[in-house]
Every structure is written in structure tokens, then in C-alpha cells.
Amino acid sequence: MPRMLDVSDAVRAEIGDEEAERLLAGENAPGSYDCTSCRTPGDSEQERTSTVLFVGDETAVLAFAHAGCLPSQVVQVTEEQLRGAVRSIGVADDAPAGGEPQRSVPEQAVLGVTSGLVLIDGELHPALVVEPTSAIVRPGTDGPGDDFLPLLIEQGFTPVTELTGVPEVLHGWSVLLAVGRLHAVLQPGGDGGRPVAWWQAHQPLQVTDGWRAAANKHQQVLMFAAPVGSIGRQPREDLLREALDRAAAQGRLVAAALPLAGT
After folding, report:
1. Which terminus of the chain is more solvent-facing, meaning fewer CB atoms within 10 Å of its CB: N or C?
2. Whole-model pTM?
3. 33 lies in which domain range?
């Protein structure tokens, strides 16, 4: 039976016209599936469904998502992320928001990333708070000093002096939430190429049901970034908010709204 599938031009280019037509005809596509974003059941025979192709260094995995959760797209990830995503399918294992940061190494910078819900204008928004474990200098220089915020401002992030409104959307950047877990923060690739990971989790980062629901509702995630020593490890969301307010008042915070998608 034909499926109500969305196959983007980018996905079609990767899998080929023949495979794309087989998917649309229902030969290689499942009827029912678990959405790779919100993890709730979907049915490609009854509702619009997006094909999402995760491409690693050596392999690729085709996943399916509600069209309202994610558009059809190609997502460039590392081989380790791809294996983690496959292992995570069907696992419902959440951790408290505001828990211990997950760290990875994008180039030479070691970043801590914490998830939490932030109240702005009376509404809860999903947020990621990024803080390096040491000062970051501009590539090609040896320091001293900390260029973390200037580098982000050059990328389009906005200085925040108080958390009174939702920051502007930073197009080209995005947050990759796959199989209900946080995998990466993506930035535009060079020369208009595929998005690349600005930050990626060694293992998919668990988020709470409330965080995931807010992300799916708003279809975006607020990213806040501060220099080392500005936020610290905060075990609760109220303490995380207090630390954000302090960093903003000190002029040590930048922010942007990043679309919830793989590109």
C-alpha cells in the first residue's frame, strides 16, 4: 500500500530514485513506526511521515518521524553517534533536567552541556546551557584571554543582559533530537554543505519527558552559552535559572533559539 511519506530531494539524492520510489510505494517502508523525534507511535499509512537519513562516516540509517516533528532531511553524524542512535531505539530512559553535563571535544574545546526548562514570559521553554571547562582562545592564537563569547557572537548569537524574552532564531544552526534523546548541536557546513556537529554527545543525552514535550511544542530549543566559571553544575532547574540570571546581569551570557531538527 502506498505510504504518506515525505522524501526530500536531499534524501532522494542519497538513497537513489529507485529506492525512494520503493519507499513511497510501501515496499520498504514500515506502516507503523516509533517517531525518531518524539518516540510516540506513527503510521505512515494514515499520517504524513518524514524520512530522515542519518549518515555516518561509513554507514547510514533511515529513520521515520511524524512530519510535524521533523522534516525529511539528511543528517550528518559521526559513526559513534549513529551506533548510539541505533542502540537507543526503543529505550525509554530519562534523566532529570539540570543534571550533570555531558561533555565532548569539538576540535580543542571541551564543553559542558546541560538541559533544562526555562520560564520566559510565563511559558516553559526547552533550553541547553553550554559552558566550557576552561577558557577558549581564538583558533590560531595562544591566549591569554577567553574568546568563547566573541566567537559565538560572530556566529550570530546575541548577548543577553536579562532573560525577559525569547532570543531570535539563529537559522542554519539546529538541535538534533533523535529517538527522543539529544545527539548534537549542529552548525552550517562550509560552502553550503551538510550541517556539521558543533557539539556532539559521546552518548545520546537523556532528557525529561517535559523537556522533550516542550521542544516538540515550540519546535526549537533555546541555547545559552557562558564562559567557564559562569554557570557551574546546577542540580535543579531553579538554581540553573538563578545562575543564568547572574551571568546575564554580568554580561557573560549569549543566546539564540535553534530549530529542532537535524539541519
Report:
1. N
2. 0.62
3. 5-76
